[in-house]
Amino acid sequence: MADRKVSNWWTFWGVLILVWALFPLLWMVSLSFKDPATFRSSTPTFFPKTWVWDNYKTVFTDSLFTSALRNSVFIAVIATGLAVIIAMFAAYAIARMNFPGKKLLLSMALAIAMFPQAALVGPLFNMWRNLGIYDTWIGLIIPYLTFALPLSIWTMSAFFRQIPWEMEQAAQVDGATAWQAFRKVIIPLAAPGVFTTAILTFFFCWNEFLLAISLTSTDRARTVPAALSFFTGASQFQSPITYIMAASVVVTIPVVILVLVFQRRIMAGLTAGAVKG
Amino acid sequence: MAAISIRNLVKRYSDGFPAVNDVSLEIADGEFVILVGPSGCGKSTLLRMIVGLEDITSGDLLIGGERMNQKAPRDRNLAMVFQNYALYPHLTVFENIAFPMRLKNVPNEEVTKRVNEAADLLQLTEHLQRKPAHLSGGQRQRVAMGRAIVRKADAFLFDEPLSNLDAKLRGQMRTEIARLQHQLGTTTVYVTHDQTEAMTLGDRIAVLRKGLLQQVGSARQLYEEPVNLFVAGFIGSPPMNFLPGRFKNGQVETPFGTVSAAGPRLSKVGDRELVILGLRPEHFEDVRLVDATKRAQGKTFTAEVDVTEWLGSQLYAYVPYDAPSEVESQLEELERELDSEQMRTQLVVALDAASRIRSGGRAELWFDPERMHVFDAASGENLTRDPDRVFELDEIERPVEAEIQAADKTEAASESKETPEKA
Ligand SMILES: Nc1ncnc2c1ncn2[C@@H]1O[C@H](COP(=O)(O)OP(=O)(O)OP(=O)(O)O)[C@@H](O)[C@H]1O
Ligand SMILES: [Mg+2]
């Protein structure tokens, strides 16, 4: 009896939190399916009276969005890939080796992570224009790397530190070079850490707005979060809200898919059974 | 397969602590050498220097006649079994065992063949596709061994491979390791601090203390002719009894009365103010079970028996006595170093099981003074050690079967001893 009461209580809270979190999402989805001409009716409903795909059609035919989507995908993927590779080596060195200035490096990384991005926007804008990388992919990838790396290095070195030293020593005795031990033993064991870092970095690049809007001016490099603010309706008398919502749904989907796919990998305690438990 | 020469090896950690101090040891091709010593004496450090995971501060390490000091672990062609096995959790048992061969790009059929052979030998065949996390302790241990033996390595190095297993499994795996080593004939260095493993497994035992090599020899040599107090106290279970003594005018004063020091062993000592006498528990006997001719050669004394333990094959009697303050500190330090639970203020006596002595009474005991070891009270050096006898013991070459049987017997004795002690 008491058990059931307790579990009901948990269910209640669970549902409450779910509703709380899902409500804005549902509202976004619902809006994106409403007719742009009539969604501001005098008798508003939560769900659309008639479900229409017009918003999505408009969004995907709008070159503003399609080019932004392309920019977003490539910039986020490239920045994430680079960040993960660089962070992997840096984190390994920090976790496993002793070198002068290690403490300094770590605290600098932390300082960068805490540095207010807004303060950098002005100087970067000028510098990028002088260097000729204003409004280019590389112009966004570089600051993204800068801000993503500290956190990536910290997370990954935490993961590397958990891997018993003996794994590597065993590999060395078994005949592996340092590189082979790293590739065949350390990376597979650190995979959950690598995935976590990759996803966090990807989300950061995917959602970033401030730099994206400041360092771009055209379709060449503008990413989706920045592009959304440039949306106009089909005519200037229409509100662009439904289009923006449709675009938002489209950019949210990859995030949801990524989380669902890698949920297991992120959670998996892959080192279980390495040593006697 | 190769011989290992350790010459004046020193390991000084960054804090200046000499974990291994000037150790020299020649290990012949195919020999099974055990490294023993109390915790922190540098056994693992020495082993890790051999395998290349620890830099050598000074001295030379030769494997198969080649100097290895500067070589990376992968170039030494040695196989090591770690204390906690260090299996690769992301690989199956098959791939764990195959790992060293994969690194050398051995062709697939060859890998499969050799892994299957090893799995056969270690009874792992039905577990080959499982992950280490799903195996029992003993199975993981065998996988670690499998990974070592497929290598065709020049030598095996074991660092306390059985210490994570329960007592029964440890016994099984111990015989398995002995069998495997005889079968493969690979040079082996085996670190342990377990008495039974040390006595039964190897051809020779090397005893380390605070980074210094104390004595190297067969189990029999260490047991019967220890070089010093430390080795005497470390080897043997229950441990040797240590008592104060005094040599005066060809006589030895012991806590049980004065005996003659005229015998060939004791006469070597000469007059000395204070010595430590070492008597193994089995050097004592119930006087009623000693025949008359023998009785006269030894010393009979009366003692208060505190507790007795009858084990079927033997009877242990515990005799309390007061340790005089002169040797107390020396013995206390020894005790601390050896981590022994044995109280030094009681004598442990192993008598014939037929003895009628019972707890809480007085008993007539007998011992042969000529079997006594005499140690210098200050340095701990064994004054009665006979180097020629050591040499003779060295010559005894027992066949393999006899060795394993002897191993089993010692094991049975020590295990049956453990139970009543706890009770
Ligand atoms: N990395 C290190 N830095 C400094 N001192 C160390 C280091 N590793 C070990 N030592 C010291 O070296 C000594 C020998 O250590 P070692 O691990 O070889 O002992 P051991 O004989 O294997 O002991 P155990 O039976 O407990 O495994 C110890 O006193 C230890 O404190
Ligand atoms: Mg050790």
CATH class of the domain at 63-230 in chain A: Mainly Alpha
Give me the CATH architecture of the largest domain in chain B, please: 3-Layer(aba) Sandwich
> How far do the termini of chain A sit from each other?
37 Å
User: How many E-type strands of chain A?
Assistant: 0
Overall domain count of chain B? 2
Strand order of the largest sheet of chain B: 6-7-8-3-9-10
Structural class of chain B: alpha+beta
The portion of residues forming beta strands of chain B comes to 25-35%
**Strand-pairing-aware structural class of chain A:** mainly alpha
CATH homologous superfamily (4th level) name of the largest domain in chain B:
P-loop containing nucleotide triphosphate hydrolases
Coarse shape of chain B? elongated
CATH fold node name of the domain at 63-230 in chain A: MetI-like fold
Tell me, briefly, the overall form of chain A: globular
Question: What is the CATH C-level name of the largest domain in chain B?
Answer: Alpha Beta
- Please state the second-level CATH architecture of the domain at 63-230 in chain A: Orthogonal Bundle
How many DSSP E strands of chain B?
Answer: 21
CATH superfamily of the domain at 63-230 in chain A: MetI-like
Largest sheet features of chain A = none
Distance between the termini of chain B: 47 Å
Assembly of the depicted chains: heterodimer
Keywords (chain B): ATP-binding, Cell membrane, Membrane, Nucleotide-binding, Translocase, Transport
Organism (chain B): Paractinoplanes globisporus
GO molecular function, one term (chain B): ATP binding
Pfam family, one (chain B): OB_MalK
